[in-house]
Amino acid sequence: MKKAMLFLLMLFISFLTAIAQNVRVVSEEMLTGPADGMFCCPQMDKSGTRVFFTTPGYRGLYYYHLDEKKLFPVNDDFGAGYEPAINADGNEVLCRTYTVKNGRRFYSIVKFDSQTREKTILEKDRRLLSVPKQLKDGNIVYTLNSELKTDAPVSTGKNKQEPQVRPAVFIEDQKIALFVNGQKRVLEPRGSGSYIWPELSPSGRRLLFKKLGDGCYVSDLEGNIISSLGNINAPHWSPDGKYIVYMADRDDGQKIIASEIHVIKANGSTDIQLTETHNQIELYPRWGNDINTIVYNTEKGQIYLMRLEWK
Predict the structure, then answer these.
(1) What's the CA gap between 257 and 8, in Å, rounded?
(2) Which pLDDT belongs to residue 65?
(3) pTM to 2 decimal places
(4) Burial, 255: exposed, middle or buried (Cβ in 10 Å; 0-12, 13-18, 19+)?
(5) How far apart are CA 194 and CA 210, in angstroms?
(6) Which residue did the predictor score with more confidence, 164 or 202?
(7) Under 8 Å between Cβ of 49 and 65
(8) CB of 161 within 8 A of CB of 155?
(9) Which of 283, 282, 262, 286 is CA-nearest to residue 274?
(10) Residue 179: pLDDT band with limits 50, 70, 90
(11) Which residues 6+ apart lie within 8 Å of 168 measured at CB?
(12) For 102-161, what is each residue's pLDDT tens digit?
């Protein structure tokens, strides 16, 4: 009996190893160096030509042009670097910026031309204004006073009566606010608590989120749990919806002391570690324009581009 159990265990380990060997890191390129400044939270446009990022504290927005090998500023506004919405070719970026008046924050939604740096204000000095989100159809949505707004006309459904808007998800009062066809659902799939990092899958049919003190999960749009991913941080869907990239970090109670980049299957079955460094802390990874590309920053503020090969 023991020999049979040992054989099954070895077979299972061999199976997982074979799966892990299906992907390998081909290269890692440092896009910004110490002389350029400290940056964080990178994301790539869908054309794969620009990598956008911000500074610690989310002040300002910058991008690195991969073809020109140059760093460019977009703006220097407070809050602009927190979850900006970037159009497909990277020419336009929508940011939520803020000003402080009498100790209170007032938010604005501003559209920036990343090349000319010209800006157009869509919403100005609002108290309850979410960050903008880009939908798969290219439209930009955000919430104002908990109501869904868009920067473009929406298409109509088959009945030609009600506007059809792709699902969008936000955080409101530490809960998940999911909008489907413009109608809001407030979700707490794991009960009351604090929810962060909600993100819809590329198909728009699954929801990724984390509940603090609990873990990270994938659910359907009704909040029914599909898979448990463990206590992972900064998760993001792969472009094909099959994997999730995240940072496996450790802290000493005050600061992060170690972190590596992993990818995990969306069903939670397979976890693959991509980095293994002892002198560098990799943070906030995101997929690039395809499943072969990941961008991330280090604790020292450098932006990196990772290339993968899948077999």
Answers:
(1) 37
(2) 97
(3) 0.88
(4) exposed
(5) 9
(6) 202
(7) yes
(8) no
(9) 262
(10) very high
(11) 133, 135, 141, 148, 178, 179, 200
(12) 999 999 999 999 889 999 999 999 999 999 998 777 788 999 999 999 875 544 444 444
CB within 8 Å of 14: residues ≥ 6 apart: none
Residues pairing with 98 in the sheet: 107
- Nearest Cα residue to 307 out of 29, 63, 120: 29
d(CA 109, CA 124): 7
Question: Hey, what are 154's tokens?
Answer: 């929406």
| Closest to 184 measured CA to CA, from 146, 227, 154 | 146
Structure tokens given for 73: 């500023």
Residues whose CB falls within 8 Å of the CB of residue 280, separated by 6 or more in sequence, listed in order: 298, 299, 300
CA distance 75 to 166: 29
SS3 for the chain is CHHHHHHHHHHHHHHHHHHHCCEEEEEEEECCCHHHCCCEEEEECCCCCEEEEECCCCCCEEEEECCCCEEEEEECCCCCCCCCEECCCCCEEEEEEEEEECCEEEEEEEEEECCCCCEEEEEEEECCECCCEECCCCCEEEEECCEEEECCCCEECCCCCCEECCCEEEEECCEEEEEECCEEEEECCCCCCCEEEEEECCCCCEEEEEECCCEEEEEECCCCEEEEEECCEEEEECCCCCEEEEEEEEECCCCEEEEEEEEEECCCCCEEECCCCCCCCEEEEEECCCCCEEEEEECCCCEEEEEEEEC
Q: Evaluate if residue 79 carries a pLDDT over 60.
A: yes
Please give the average per-residue pLDDT across 250-276, as a whole number: 95
